[in-house]
Each structure stands twice: as C-alpha cells, then as structure tokens.
Amino acid sequence: MPMALKNYFQKGFWKKLADLFRPIYHYLLALAGALWYRFPAKNIFVVAVTGTKGKTTTVEIIGAILKEDGYKVALSSTLHFEIAGAEERNLFKMTMPGRFFIQKFLRRAVNAKCDYAVIEMTSEGAQQFRHKFTALNALVFTNLAPEHIESHGSFENYLAAKLKLARALEKSHKDRKFIIANVDDPQGNTFLNANVPGKFPFSLKNTSPYLIKKEGLEFALENRKVISPLSGEFNLYNILASIMFARSQNITDEIIIKAVEKFSGLRGRVEKVTLSSNDPDSIKQNFSVIVDYAHTPDSLEKVYQVFQNTRLICVLGNTGGGRDTWKRPIMGQIADRYCDHIILTNEDPYDEDPRKILQEIHTAIKETACEEILDRRSAIRRALGLAKTGDTVIITGKGTDPYIMGPHGQKTPWDDATVAREELKNTLNARTA
User: Fold this and answer.
1) CA nearest 300: which of 225, 203, 397?
2) What is the rounded CA–CA span in Å between residue 226 and residue 219?
3) Consecutive 10-residue runs of the chain (433 residues): their mean pLDDT?
4) Pathway membership of this protein (predicted)?
5) pLDDT for residue 5
6) What SS3 class is residue 344?
7) pLDDT at residue 317, rounded to an integer
8) Full DSSP string of 66-116
9) Which of 134, 91, 138, 89 is nearest to 110 (CA)?
C-alpha cells in the first residue's frame, strides 16, 4: 500500500474512533459530575434559557423579576455567575463551562438556599451533554439564527442540538414544567410542541402598541404602559420572554413592571460608555459611545438600526479559527449599509491570520470609508478621534469578553468598555472645552 494512502486510512481510523468515543466521554463526565455533587437540580427550580441571541439579557431580566418578588436566585450566564447576591465575572470565555461546572454551580445554589437557578444553555454545551442530569423545570427559547455552523455541520444540526434541551425538559421528573417560546421566530412552535403541561408563547403582538427609541422602550402590558431604559426591538423580545416566564410563576404584573422599569441593562450589551460625572472632562463628551457584543449579522444590524439616525463610526472585526467564516462578508455588507465610517480591527484571531479576516470583511464594503487598524486599542482611539457632536461610535464583537484570543492559545486580558473609557478620557482631555 502506498505510504500516502496508508497515512490517509490511519488518520481516518483515528478520527472515526475519536468521533465514536467523544460523546461517551462527555456523557460519562456529566454523570460523574452529577454523582459527585449529589444531583443538586432535584432540590431547586431550574430554568434553562437558550437561543442564538438575547440569552444573557433574558437570564438577567428573569433574575431581576424573581429578586423583586423576594426570591433567592442563582444566575449563570456569559456575563457572570451569581449565587444569592454574591457575584463573580465569567472568565471562562464560554457560556456553559464543562468539567462539572453546572453541577457544582447548582450545588452551591442549593447550599445557599436559592429558590431558582437560571442558566444560559448553549447548543455546543448540549452537544457535549453538559445539560445532562440537570432536571429542568422550565425552558425559555429566544430565537434561532445561523450560528456555529462550522461546529455543528448545518443549521439543521444546530437546531437539533437546541432541541435536546426541549427533550430534556420533557424527560425531567419535575412536576412543574413550563416552556416559554418566541412564536415570531420560525422555530418557536417547534419548541412549543414539547410535551410539557405549561406552554407560554410570546410575540411582539403581546405589547402592541410599542415605541422603540434610542433612549429606551415604551410598550403596553395588559393596557398598562411600561417604560424600559433598554434600547432596540431585540431587547423588547428579551423583556417579553422574561415577562412570560414570570407569569408562568404567577408573579403579579405590578412586580413584573417594577422590575422591568428598574432594569437598566448589562455591561457589553448596548452599553453606553461615559466618563464619571465627577470627571471635569465629562462635560466635553458631545457624542455617544456604545459597546455591544453583536457577533452575528442579525444582531449587528439591529444594534446599528437603534442609532441609524445619527452619524455612525463603527469598529468591528470577526472571530478567527475558522469559526463561521460565512459571516465575514455579510457583516461587511451590513456595516457598509449603516455606517458612515468603518474601522476594521482585531477581535479573536486564534491561529488565523488577522489580516485575512479583515480582508474578507473589507471585500464586501463598497461605498463607505473604511480603514484597517489591527491593534484594537488604536482602532478605538481612531474612532473616538473622528467623533463629532451628535455622532455615535459603536464598538462591536466582544462585549464583556475578558480576553483577545491569539495564536497557540495566547490570551491577552481585555475589556472593550474599559479601553473605550480610557481612550475617551484621552480624546476629550486633548480637546478644548
């Protein structure tokens, strides 16, 4: 047998063997975690929140409503972990950490006498059985858009991975089970088909009439006016998902409205960057600076739409490592459509050439002035320097991500809002009042 052919068959054999045993490994790991921490989910009401976008914000709004009603709550999200008021930042660079994390988190929540655990759950986590042996009480579905296609192989596989959570809810031994789903999404009714007793669909029709402004949202809830400081239609969906979950728990509209109106948003999610009011340079800021996690074409467009009535200076990039490369030209097209000046920069290149990533975005930008500045801090500095009265600088792609991921596993500590605030201070300091 020729050596090249022999090597091909050997590599194919080991790959098939790894593909065969990988699911078994993850399943046994999940079982071991549940055994070690004594199946903590049986002693707490567990809520899973899944979807492509809006998971983190929905987790946090649900938490805010539950706390407003006097419950002790545990929250696990891309942003942070919270148990009975004690918080720690999520530094794992993943939404749903493995290695027993979920079971350990639930055990800590039970020990702290929490009433509810609200957990952001992902398709990749479900693929690796990280949700296994976690008896669910409720599943909240936000939406589904093409994402993680390279890792799942197809959109259908991506949907199937999400639906594993619905199957897990069906199989849960819990008595009280609920599914809350966005029926404006084409997959909403697929989730509602789950065989559970409590079904709570939601739609923008539930809030009509509603008003979306740069400063916030106004909508109706059972003929009562609700004013939220959150911006964008996407956040109206997140609020609706949270409201319908709260109603499944018989929480009064009075409590719900109070919590929603108090909830001012999250770091890295349409986050407004300003200097402290005590800083003498703060009075010089006559333009807006926004940091947002937007990392899909749909979420990028929705953020731009919120501020489209202003001159937009946009800083963006795209993840490397072969992840969802199809998005790059589409992100470029969207930026070209909405932005008045574009600065392409590094995001998380991993082992991929960052210049290649930027070029794949740049090729789709035909009309708008566009620069490539690899160093992310320099790109942010340049954008702020271009800003004039009434403009909006939008920095997308990382949100609260704690690192820039480089080649060979290199991790550079990072925080978009912190860097933007530092560069904003320098920019304003250099200007005359």
Assistant:
1) 397
2) 5
3) 52 62 80 94 98 95 99 96 95 80 96 98 81 94 79 80 94 97 97 97 88 90 92 95 98 98 94 92 92 93 94 96 88 98 97 96 98 98 97 97 94 97 95 68
4) Cell wall biogenesis; peptidoglycan biosynthesis
5) 46
6) strand
7) 95
8) HHHTT--EEEE-SSEEEETTEEEE--SSSSS-TTTHHHHHHHHHHHTT-SE
9) 134
pLDDT digits over 294-330, tens only?
A: 988 999 999 999 999 999 999 999 988 877 899 999 9
CA 299 – CA 398 distance, rounded (Å): 13
- Inter-axis angle of helices 253-262 and 55-68, nearest 10: 120
Which pLDDT score is estimated for 417?
97
Token readout for 237 is: 């969906």
Residues of CATH 3.90.190.20 domain(s) within the chain? Answer: 271-429
Cα–Cα distance for residue pair 376/141, rounded to 1 Å: 34
Cβ(419)–Cβ(395) below 8 Å: no
Q: Is 314 left (phi over 0), alpha (psi -120 to 50) or beta?
A: beta
DSSP secondary structure code for residue 273 in this structure: P
Position of tokens 């702020």?
A: 384
Architecture per CATH, 271-429: Alpha-Beta Complex (3.90)
Cβ-contact 68, 259 below 8 angstroms: yes
DSSP H or E segment with residue 217: strand 216-221
Q: Three-state SS for 199?
A: strand
CA 79, CA 95: separation in Å to the nearest integer?
8
